[in-house]
Amino acid sequence: MKFSKTITLKEIAAILNCEFVGDTDFPVSGMNEIHVVEKGDIVFVDHPKYYDKALNSAATIVLINKKVECPEGKALLISDDPFRDFNTLTNHFKPFQSTNSAIATSAIIGEGTIIQPNVFIGNHVVIGKNCIIHPNVCLYDYTVLGDNVIIHAGSILGADAFYYKKRPEGYDQLISGGRVVVKDNVGIGALCTIDKGVTGDTTIGEGTKIDNQVHVGHDTVIGKKCLIASQTGIAGCVIIEDEVTIWGQVGTTSGITIGEKAVILGQTGVTKSVQGGKSYFGTPIQESREKLKQLANIKKIPEILIKLK
Questions:
Q1: What would the pLDDT profile of 36-64 be if each residue is shown by its tens digit?
Q2: Is-contact 154 137, C-beta < 8 A?
Q3: Dihedrals phi, psi of 23, to nearest 5 degrees
């Protein structure tokens, strides 16, 4: 998430009421999770296991809960609770905005686009040309649709990421300040849910077609011309490369990559990253040919036991 203008380290520290290490005028241009950080971004870290990863990331400002040596060319924000303070920054730079109309006045809708009854279009939504948005679709704030997009009834784009920190009193949600971005010629079925990024974008690539009742988690990037069948659940921060086919009732873990032109057969649990150009099946996931051979051999076990008697 980029700020509307570059601000200083001292100004950020004042918002958080925390100590800082670095030049007072050190430039800060945005905030992001570690997998999408760039120069000028703030990243937060609150566990020693990930200190080195955060300090050596592309981020140039690290919001951290321990005084450590500051890497050259970077700055630190010292906080007793980086998770809380990251939320503070999201609320400051991208606060929730209510709207009193079904289609927000700040929304931009392209020529030839059809909006059916009972659709909600939030603040700063951008919809391209010649789209069809069917009844009861909800497009949360800052959602972006390209041209020729079709979204069927009841789908929701832009709900919060499922991202929580466990505390003694319960679960504390990481506030989502990202977007959903849907490229040209995408089709989204009925009753789908696509969560926005925590700080970045959840992206659906050009020409991809998604069946009914599919869930796409936060910050996931789906490539061009993919096919995703019904009741599939895709976790957060997944990368699905171009022309992947995912059949029904597939589930994935987070942070994995599914390679270009891979085929994931129905009811597979994608527990790890897989290469492109191959077919996969089962839980845990394996190449489908090998998995089906194993299943065929299991059926032979009773016959083999009889022969051994």
A1: 999 999 999 999 999 999 999 999 999 99
A2: yes
A3: -65, 140
H/E stretch holding 193 reads strand 193-195
Q: Is the pLDDT of residue 248 over 90?
A: yes
CA 195 to chain centre: 7
In sequence order, which residues have a C-beta less than 8 Å from that of residue 232 and are 6 or more positions away?
211, 214, 215, 246, 247, 248, 249, 250, 251
* Distance between CA atoms of residues 134 and 127, nearest Å: 14
Q: Would you call 305 exposed, middle or buried from its count of C-beta atoms within 10 A (0-12, 13-18, 19+)?
A: exposed
Q: Cis (ω within 30 of 0) for the bond into 82? A: no
Report, as residue numbers or ranges, the catalytic residues: 218
Map residue 12 onto helix, strand or coil.
helix
Domains of the chain with CATH codes: 2-93 (3.40.1390.10), 108-292 (2.160.10.10)
Strand 75-78 versus strand 19-21 pairing type: antiparallel
- Paired with 30 in beta bridges are 2, 41
Q: Enumerate residues 6+ apart whose C-beta is below 8 A from 170.
A: none
Are the CB atoms for 147 and 131 separated by under 8 Å? yes
Q: What is d(CA 108, CA 126) in angstroms, rounded to the nearest whole number?
A: 5
